[in-house]
Amino acid sequence: MKILFILLFFLLFGYSHSKLIPSETNCLYNLILSSGNKNNYKLRNDSNWGYYCEDYPDNFKCEDSTNLLTSVILKSDSSVLYSSSLNCFQKDNLYLNLNLFTFEVNFFFQGNNFKNFSFELTNCVIYSLSKPIKNVNSLIINTNYIFSIVANTTIPISSIIELTSLTIINSASQDLNILYSNDLDSNSGKSRIKSLQTESKNVPNLLYANSIENVNFSLASTVKNDLSNLTTYTNVKTLQLNGNSYSYTFPIDSIKGLTRLNTLILNNIFFTSPTDQSIDFSTMTGLNKIDIKNPGSFSTDSIKALPVTSLKSFSINQCTIKSGYPIPGLFNRPGSVIESITITNCGMPDHLDILLPLANSLRYLDVTNNPLKGTISSQFCKLQTLKLPSNLLIMGYLPSCFACHYKNNSILKANLNPAPTLITTQNCTNLVPNLKIDTLSNRTILYGSDLGFDSSYFVTIPSTNDWIVDIPSYQFYRNATDITTFTFTFIYPGISFTLSSGGPAVTSVYVSNIGLLTIIGRGFSYNISATVFTILNDQYCSIRSTTFDTIVCQLYVYNNITKNKIDATSILKISGQPDYSFNVTYLPDFTNYYLNCSEDCTGKGFCDRNSGQCICNCHDKGSCDIRNRVCKCETFWLGDECTIPDHYVSSVNAPNILGGNVTLIGWYGYDHVNPSVFIGTLECKPIYEISTSTIICYVGAGSGVKSVTVIQNGHSWTGQNIFLYNNTIMNCPNDCTNSTMGICDQRIGQCNCLKPNFVGPDCSIEVVQQPPKSNTTVDTNSGSTDLNNDKTKYTIKITKLLELNFNNKPINSIDLLENNWNFKKINASTETNNFYIFNKIIPSKCNITFTIEEIEKDKEFTFADITFKVLSGSIKLTIEISNYTYDSGLNTLQLQMESSVGTTKTDDTSSGEQCDIANIDNIDEKSSLNYVTITKEGKTLFGRFINRALSDQRPTYISSDIVNKNDSSITIGLNLPHCINCIIDPEYLDFSILVQNKDYISDCKSGDNNNNERVWFLPVVIVVPVVSATTIVILSLVFYTKYRRTLKLKLQSLMDPRTIKMNDLN
After folding, report:
1. Long-range CB contact pairs, 379-386, < 8 A, 24+
2. Which neighbouring-strand residues pair with 981?
3. Between 455 and which of 24, 462, 467, 723 could a Cys-Cys bridge form, CB atoms 3.0 to 4.6 Å apart?
4. How far apart are the C-alpha atoms of 959 and 943, rounded to whole Å?
5. pLDDT tens-digit map of 438-488
């Protein structure tokens, strides 16, 4: 067991992977002996020892997998080294750094057995490089004395083309005077040399050395002014020429065709003064970098054009610039990709503004050691590094992109060098960061303003070190999207921001009493201008403040919103993020929450985001009152879950006074639990039929006007005074005087006068003579109509629209006399009459349109199966009320209209005496034809109207109330039935102005002696529901329910609510 343990220990710890194989050990042992420095090493003449790499790690490197040497660093005492001393090493690309060796003459030539070794020789003696160098990868020769390489040697190009690189560095005080000659031709072997860095007495021809890409020549002092061989450098990518004391003509003609040249470096080459703007680099389309130092008389003034679409870096030092032309003139061109500009020690004069405008791609600008002065523009904020002169006073204030990060920033202070008095403390209000994801590039992007000039200006939690500057001060990115939320701390101002690229999310919204919204969540922006909150068709909430988790904004249309939108879709838009849509209940002093329900609310209502519970199972017949968490039922429905029909009666077909079947048209739903109907106090039974739209029942004898009550499903509805027993025989006024004067139409109680010269309700008034012609005046502001004849004026106007509750008490009133009507007139033609059309919209209530038509010829109208004749000279008034919003389904409307009589102004009115007072007789609401007479100054205005309406296309009774009456006017209120569409047709009111007798003498005294002798008869027809019989007033009502939802319904759907589509409810 003990033996096994020792063996295991030896296997694990006793064997080193750095031990050389025996042949490699012997080879190295012999090399050390030949160097003459064996005393520096503990040598063992034992091929099995092989621990050089462990004992001397600074000198020898081993490859563990092969146990071969990879690197040898060895110093000699000037011993001679033969190639055979290295042939025994087996590793390809072995690196040999040899110091103070003397190489035998043919060391690098034919006969060695090197395996593509790389040599770095320091202060070694090399006798010849005149033959092709074999089996060597790269050769670096460092020397600090002239005789390392035989002076005035010539190196043919053919001797180096099998290398990959040749570097000869002269640290001595004298030139090596190496001359390169090109002995290649088209039959020469393939060249593999890539890099040539050397001191040279000439700029050699590189024809057929097509593999050379990098050339760095240090020109010896004996080199003549000849750079023409540069034309053969067609494959060279990097060209560096280090000068001497000779002057040269700038070789633009030799290099302008080098389209593959990427980098041009010219150091200490004294170019003779070229003509201004004579140097054109624009054909060198592959040129990426130009670096010129101490160029003599050459400067940017000499440059005509640069390859702006490829050049990214330009540097010139120790030159003389006469103006500030170079920055905007050379680099700010269309398509410019310049990133770095250095112009130092060039005497650039004038103001800092001569540097502007900068190219958008520029990131680095160094203009130190130039006599510049002026103000630092905010355009410099897009530079990652800005270096300004240190010995000049920079005027003005620092832009916020610099000042925000200036404190304790030694690099920024050293680069800008502003006067201390120009630095002001700033609170960094413009430092506004945002975060987003670019899915196309798979990048996380930090963007905003005053963010700093590189990623050292901030730290993040979670910590990452992979942020890359894209646009300094404005944008950074990282090539990953694995983290969506960061906290950024900007080091110098000491400000922290939490940002998320996952988009916004809202957890609560508080609505104050004044419409100030506080939105709580995450992923918001700090940038007010990048945040937009909209509701209700682009109505905006003005952003007051915004942070990562809180937005405060003000609604400017708050009152309208809270009236019209209980739960409105709102959209939060943040620049760079997807739109975030969510619902907000805009109730004052209300907090919206956004919770998920723990159970499925299917069939149980919907998930209340404020409580996380299922509420408002409204069965698709209502909406939810979010604050009270109850259903607000739609039209036709009642109850906690909107399952009870909200029935009503829209029209009544009543029997006569003897009793009989009653037909009630309306809406009664689909369920009829315990139904009953009452006409006044009498129960209407039995009920023969009950459906969604019709009830037919039997009522006993009675008379007069009654209310109707319908009870079903535990819900009662009453229509006040909507039932009128029909009289079997209707009496006419004064029995039409006698049988020779007129015949009574007992269906409607109307006299048909027999004698042509007698008219009036009872045919008793005689037409004595043709009266003077009257004229009609329509007020286009108020919509009132005046009929003027002689000194008498009759005025007709609609005055108010009232909403009455169940007790006939007004709860809403709309003044229709306000001068805000929209008016247009359509003039009469041969086939049509004059039309005056008025329209006004009452916000949130209704639209009212009425039309006044002047009747030029006698016309007949039929209403409710009764035909009436309307005489010429009449006026027909059509009134339409649409989209009225009821506060309750039990409420009704009353339209009030006024007729008045007065005296027109004359020239003889100075006495101030009042003429004869008008006498107005009342109407009888129980008669189907009611009469109104107004008597004044011997003239009688009389009229008739019918108390019927079409409700949902069916005739029904309507009542009228006298609202007000005095000596010269009467105001009547028309009570509309509960219906979806109502047509009131009081056109059958004939109003005539008749002379009572020939001997009438006015109580008004007048200077006109003929006034008391005027005897005339004037037939006048006034078109209003109360004081007109030969005109038509049509009132169409499309109403809102008590739930304030508009019903825009087709006529064919009026009687059957099952055909109503909810899409029609707006």
Report:
1. 381/450, 381/472, 381/473, 381/474, 382/358, 382/471, 382/472, 382/473, 382/474, 383/358, 383/453, 383/472, 384/453, 384/454, 384/469, 384/472, 385/415, 385/453, 386/415, 386/416
2. none
3. 467
4. 17
5. 989 999 999 999 999 999 999 999 999 999 999 999 999 999 999 999 999
CA distance 965 to 971: 6
Given the structure tokens 């209003």, which residue do they identify? 1024
Does residue 768 or residue 9 have the better pLDDT? 768
Please report where in the chains the tokens 């000659």 appear, as a residue. Answer: 181
429 close to 515: Cβ distance less than 8 angstroms:
no
Sign of the CA dihedral 573, 577, 582, 588? negative
Neighbour-count burial for 251-285, b at 16+ CB within 10 Å, e otherwise: bbebbbebeebbbbbbbbbebeebeeeebebbebe
d(CA 483, CA 898): 76
Question: Using CA atoms, how far apart are residues 656 and 248, in angstroms rounded to an integer?
Answer: 129
Report in angstroms the alpha-carbon separations of 689 from 677, 681, 695. Answer: 12, 21, 5
- Say how far apart CA 569 and CA 23 lie, in whole Å: 85
List all residues 6 or more positions away from 915 whose beta carbon is below 8 Å from its beta carbon. Answer: 903, 936, 937, 1002, 1003, 1004
The DSSP bridge partners found for residue 652 are 664
Question: Cα 974 to chain center, whole Å?
Answer: 52
- Please give the angle made by the CA atoms of 695, 699 and 701, to the nearest 5 degrees: 155
Question: What DSSP string describes 386-419?
Answer: EE--SSSPEES---HHHHTTTTT-HHHHHHH---
How far apart CA 975 and CA 955 sit, in angstroms, is 15
CA atoms within 13 A on the CB side of 372: 29
Residue length of the chain: 1066
With 80 as the cut, is the pLDDT of residue 360 above it?
yes
d(CA 473, CA 982): 70
Q: What is the mean pLDDT of residues 407-412?
A: 83
pLDDT tens for residues 188-233?
888 999 999 998 889 999 999 999 999 999 988 777 668 899 999 9
Token pair recorded at residue 479: 């090539």
CB 884 within 8 A of CB 1039: yes
* Whole-number Å distance between alpha carbons of 618 and 636: 13
d(CA 658, CA 728): 9
Q: How far apart are CA 160 and CA 320, in angstroms?
A: 41
Residue 758's closest CA among 741, 771, 744? 741
Cα 491 from Cα 476, distance rounded (Å):
16
Residues with Cβ < 8 Å from 905, sequence gap 6 or more?
A: none
| Paired tokens of 560 | 């309208």
Cα gap 701→1019, rounded to integer Å? 42
Q: How many CB atoms lie within 10 A of CB 985?
A: 23
> What is the distance between the alpha carbons of residues 112 and 683, in angstroms, rounded to a whole number?
133
> What is the number of H-type helices and E-type strands within the chain?
9, 79
Dist CA 872 CA 990 (whole Å)? 11
H/E run at residue 305: strand 303-305
Give which of 380, 379, 374 is closest to 419, Cα–Cα.
374
d(CA 967, CA 905): 19
CA atoms within 13 A on the CB side of 65: 1
Contact between 455 and 468 under an 8 Å Cβ cutoff? The reply is: yes
Element of type H or E holding 154: strand 154-156
What is the separation of C-alpha 448 from the centre of its chain, rounded to a whole number of angstroms?
A: 18
Task: Report how far Cα 979 is from the mean position of its chain's Cα atoms.
Answer: 45
How confident is the prediction for the chain on average, in pLDDT?
80
**Other beta carbons less than 10 A from residue 1048's beta carbon:** 11
Q: Residue 133 half-sphere exposure, CB side, CA atoms within 13 Å?
A: 28
